[in-house]
Amino acid sequence: MPRTAIVIGAGHNGLVCAFYLARAGIKVTICERRNIVGGAAVTEEFHPGFRNSVASYTVSLLHEKIIADMKLHERGLKILERPISNFLPTEDGGYLKLGGGLQRTQQEVAKFSAKDAAALPAYYDMLDAIGDILRDLSLQTPPNQPDGLLGLPRALSQGNRLRRLPIDQQRNLLDLFTKSARDVLTAWFESDPIKAALGFDAIVGNYASPDTPGSAYVLLHHTFGGVNGKKGAWGHAVGGMGAITQAMAQACQEVGVKILLDSPVKQVTTHNTRATGVLLESGSEIPSDIVAANVGPKLLFTKLVDPASLDEDFRKRIANYKVGSGTFRMNVALSELPSFTCLPGTTPAEHHASGIILAPTLDYMDRAYTDARAHGWSRAPIVEMLIPSTVDPSLAPPGQHVASLFCQQVAPTLQGRTWPDAREEVADLMIETVNRHAPNFKASVLGRVSLSPWDLEEKFGLMGGDIMHGHMSLDQLWATRPILGHASYRAPIANLYMCGAGTHPGGGVSGLPGHNAAREILRKKKHIFF
Ligand SMILES: Cc1cc2nc3c(=O)[nH]c(=O)nc-3n(C[C@H](O)[C@H](O)[C@H](O)COP(=O)(O)OP(=O)(O)OC[C@H]3O[C@@H](n4cnc5c(N)ncnc54)[C@H](O)[C@@H]3O)c2cc1C
After folding, report:
1. pTM for this prediction
2. Is 32 in the pocket of ligand 1 (CB under 6 A)?
3. Residue 154 predicted with pLDDT over 80
4. Is the pLDDT of residue 529 over 70?
5. Average pLDDT in the 401-409 region?
6. For the ranges 204-213, 216-225, 310-319, 399-408, which has the lowest average pLDDT?
7. Is 265 in the pocket of ligand 1 (CB under 6 A)?
8. Using an 8 Å Cβ cutoff, are 311 and 29 in contact?
């Protein structure tokens, strides 16, 4: 039974894992490289007087069990639902709004196709039903190949859950796991705006076209959460995403977790193929019974573990483990709200408080991907803009605003140039892209900070700038996340575990990898089950 544990990284999953271990009586130390907890879920001041979530910016996947166990609401966490979910300017100069109730969304969609409006309830029911299954599976450790007989009950129970589904739902599930987003959406809808608004979820953090087989799964991944009990909704954490991880750190400290900031880990120490603790960059060594790595699997096994302690096949597979989500993130301080050509006005309105999608069709998204493959970034990029200060005035001075720009389809590495060299040119392009839809935007920018894939790796340790710690493709999901044979959160080195987004159920601020990893570690303490 482990008595001491080290968690490498104080990202939200590291905090969740540490919390459950400490609550079970283990003495836990977290070693975090940065001077702040939270990993990719942090709030920082990026321009004098303007604060925002630096990387992740919207919440839905955070599991309610973790919210309750860590008493995050009691610690002040408040999550607000947006008045409508999305606003999408269309190619013909109009717009589509989603959210605010099914009837209202149907009326909006009917502007483009009555048939699509009629199809919406069944589409949402389908996503809901499949989302329920994913929600269940997300809290469970996937069946793990080497567990043999011990893993059999798990494989049977999860297999049975799927086998008991009506055949139409099994077909839907198969479609969503294997098909492209366009194939799935075209089977339901005929008009471009609704396909684009729904299909956007398929390419968020996914360096792929909506025509790439398997992209429909990423769409599904973005729908299995919820806000304050409302399934599938996305919301805003008051104070930014850092409010979540600050509350988590409080919960950790209450159960005795020691958090060491500015303490980058250089290496996992081993003896006779067992992890024995960590060596910090500072030269100090901290021994412990187990080590749980919150960093992504590629970083862990290529940088922090002695390659000699891994077998050749594992080393090769980790070298080929796919990272690079093709994302570019900006925080922008604004003197006024954008006035859209298709819906003018700078007075706060519901569309300003929604996820604003600047990518009018699936064809546009496909072109963005192919262009980025050829050129390094898309010259007509996909931008989602959120203006959190419309629902949370604490982020900006009175009357002014902060905008999060989440831009998709840039190459993780450039040919013949570096990201530090190209960053500001690409940032200008992102501003121009918004300006094309809202002509007062560029002039309203008071300050900006831009994070290319290279910056995401430098700042957060996200290899290839991958927001999910690795592609969410069929070959890197569930029983194969991160690699077949290691889906049980155990590394191929005894006493070394993985507890970050590179494990099931993957990326996003869910806390689930941290929760599930802690449960696997605690299986050694037989009486503890949660
Ligand atoms: C730009 C961007 C936008 C996103 N948007 C959203 C969103 O809106 N909603 C959502 O749900 N998800 C979003 N995501 C995804 C989500 O934020 C991540 O998947 C999630 O935060 C991963 O959490 P984690 O705890 O597993 O790892 P991380 O948050 O990556 O934490 C890992 C920690 O390890 C630390 N570390 C690295 N190397 C070392 C070392 N050698 N020694 C010690 N510590 C080390 C890092 O500093 C970091 O604190 C976004 C991510 C990014 C980058």
Report:
1. 0.97
2. yes
3. no
4. no
5. 98
6. 216-225
7. yes
8. no
CA atoms of 388 and 333, how far apart (whole Å): 11
Ligand 1 atom index nearest CA of 61: 11
> Among 523, 63, 75, 16, which Cα is nearest to 257's?
16
Residue 3 is predicted with a pLDDT of: 95
- For ligand 1, pick from 291, 509, 516 the residue to mutate: most ligand atoms within 8 Å of CB: 509
pLDDT of 150 reads: 65
DSSP 158-202: HHHHHHTS-HHHHHHHHHHHHS-HHHHHHHH--SHHHHHHHHHHH
- 34 CA to middle of ligand 1, Å? 12
Rounded distance from Cα 11 to ligand 1 centre (Å): 6
Residues β-bridged to residue 343: 340
Q: Which of 30, 70, 281, 295 to mutate to test the pocket of ligand 1 (most atoms within 8 A of CB)?
A: 295
31 ligand 1 Cβ < 6 A:
yes
Tokens of residue 170, six digits: 């099994």
Dist. CA 529 → ligand 1 center (Å): 27
What are residue 53's DSSP bridge partners? 43
Outline where 79-113 has alpha helix (H).
Answer: 102-110
- β 401-410/327-334 pair status: antiparallel
Q: Which atom in ligand 1 lies closest to the alpha carbon of residue 499?
A: 26
Q: Write out pLDDT tens, residues 415-455.
A: 999 999 999 999 999 999 999 999 999 999 999 999 999 99
Q: Indicate whether residue 310 lines ligand 1 (CB < 6 A).
A: no
pLDDT tens digits, 307-338 = 999 999 999 999 999 999 999 999 999 999 99
C-alpha span between 127 and 121 (Å, rounded): 10
* Spatial separation of the C-alpha atoms in residues 177 and 124, rounded to whole Å: 17
Dist CA 124 CA 196 (whole Å): 16
The verdict on the CB of residue 39 being under 6 Å from ligand 1 is: yes
SS3 320: coil
Q: How far is CA 239 from CA 63, 81, 233, 355, 389, in A?
A: 19, 14, 19, 18, 10
The model's pLDDT over 67-96, given as tens digits with 9 standing for 90+, comes to: 999 999 999 999 999 999 999 999 999 999
Q: What is the 3-state secondary structure (H, E, C) of 48-76?
A: CCEEEECCCCCECCCCHHHHHHCCCCCCC
295 close to ligand 1 (CB < 6 Angstrom): yes
What is d(CA 404, CA 16) in angstroms, rounded to the nearest whole number?
Answer: 26
Confidence class of residue 155 from pLDDT cuts 50, 70 and 90? Answer: confident
Atom index in ligand 1 nearest the CA of residue 456 equals 53
